[in-house]
Amino acid sequence: MSAGIILLYSNNRIAHLYYSTVVPMKSHGIVYGKEGTIKVECLQCPTDMWIGEKHIEIPNPPSAESFNFCGSAGLAYEAEHVRQCLTQGKNNYIIPTMYRCL
Questions:
Q1: What is the pLDDT of residues 42-86, one digit of tens each?
Q2: Is it the case that residue 32 has pLDDT exceeding 90?
Q3: Three-state SS at 18
Q4: Which of 5, 7, 9, 98 has the most beta carbons within 10 angstroms of its beta carbon?
Q5: Do residues 28 and 41 touch, judged by C-beta distance below 8 A?
């Protein structure tokens, strides 16, 4: 199964999304704007991005576990943080550093 999706936003903004469960595709995202471009290479668990010509790298925290897939360490880190919030009765979470850089 695959699809191409076009989302239309106010002020003539457009998003093009593509996915496939049949064909292997890169998992990356590019945002084009009036002031430049943001590129993220691995959307499942981004550890670096390019904002224009500036490269920002934020590695996953070290883990004693071994994982089968790229980005699994970051997913485990995020899931553990959500678990901690839920067990403490919190319904909000800390925004990861990478997203604060935007």
A1: 877 788 899 999 999 988 878 888 888 777 888 888 888 888 888
A2: no
A3: strand
A4: 98
A5: yes
| Spatial separation of the C-alpha atoms in residues 52 and 84, rounded to whole Å | 35
59 and 49 Cβ atoms separated by less than 8 Å: no
State the SS3 of 46-95: CCEEEECCEEEECCCCCCCCCCCCCCHHHHHHHHHHHHHHHHCCCCCCCC
Token digits of residue 68? 């089968």
What's the CA gap between 101 and 91, in Å, rounded?
Answer: 23
Q: pTM surpassing 0.70?
A: no
Query: CA of 36: how far to CAs of 7, 30, 82, 91, 92, in Å?
Result: 20, 11, 33, 34, 31
Instruction: List, in order, residues 6 or more apart from 21 with CB less than 8 Å away.
Output: 1, 2
Residue type, 3: A
What is the spatial distance between Cα 22 and Cα 6, in angstroms, rounded to a whole number?
20
